[in-house]
Amino acid sequence: MACSLAQHYGSWAYGWYTSVDESPYSGMIIRELPRGGDLEQQALRYTSALVQWRGWLEALAAVFAQFAPGPDADGEQIRRLRERAVAPIVTLVVERTGAGELWLGACWEALEWYLQSTGMSPLEAEVAHDAVDAVFASWTAPDAEEVRRVGRAVGGHGA
After folding, report:
1. Could you count the other beta carbons within 10 Å of the beta carbon of residue 97?
2. CB contact at 8 A, 16 and 2
3. pLDDT digits (tens, 9 = 90+) for 40-57
4. Bridge partners of 30?
5. pTM, rounded to two decimals
6. Distance between CA 120 and CA 126 in Å, rounded?
7. How many Å is the Cα radius of gyration of the chain?
8. CA distance 53 to 106
9. Is residue 146 helix, strand or coil?
10. How far is residue 110's CA from residue 89's CA, in Å, rounded to a whole number?
11. How many CB atoms lie within 10 A of CB 133?
């Protein structure tokens, strides 16, 4: 189903299926889908998942745009932007996931996407995964100091 939806709507529609959970405490991006098994209920589930996923991508895109380096930005400016972008991205993830059990995956994924959008290679952007796993914990929203530590780790990683 995920492949069919992505073929029909475009690549943006592909990632939703890995972010679905019916538990409001899971920490996933997409939650509380309509229940039921008949064809109409299945259509409602997929529609709800796609709408939630699209909203998530648009919210991230707005933050990414706010912290996008200009064409003339030097390495230091890019590092500072990356460091400053961590707090609003983490806040967005925490608000969306409730910092549940699985929220860390959504967090490092969003941070990696942001870093790649600023010109960092996918391999280099894994610094976000390492920083999130080293500092944040499941079931716990990070405090300001923890967010700053992740920001420093991300911002201090090349430009």
Report:
1. 24
2. yes
3. 777 777 788 888 889 999
4. 20
5. 0.87
6. 10
7. 17
8. 12
9. helix
10. 7
11. 13
Give SS3 for 138: coil
pLDDT digits (tens, 9 = 90+) for 51-108: 888 999 999 999 999 999 999 999 999 999 999 999 999 999 999 999 988 899 999 9
Q: Give the amino acid at 60.
A: L
Residue positions counted in the chain: 159
Q: Cβ contacts of residue 61 below 8 Å, gap of 6+?
A: none
Cα(128)–Cα(147) distance, integer angstroms: 12
Task: Give me the residues paired with residue 56 across strands.
Answer: none
Dihedral of alpha carbons 84, 29, 143, 122, sign: negative
Sign of CA dihedral 64, 122, 131, 98: positive
Residue 124 burial by CB count (10 A; 0-12/13-18/19+): exposed, middle or buried? middle
Which amino acid is located at 78 in the chain? I
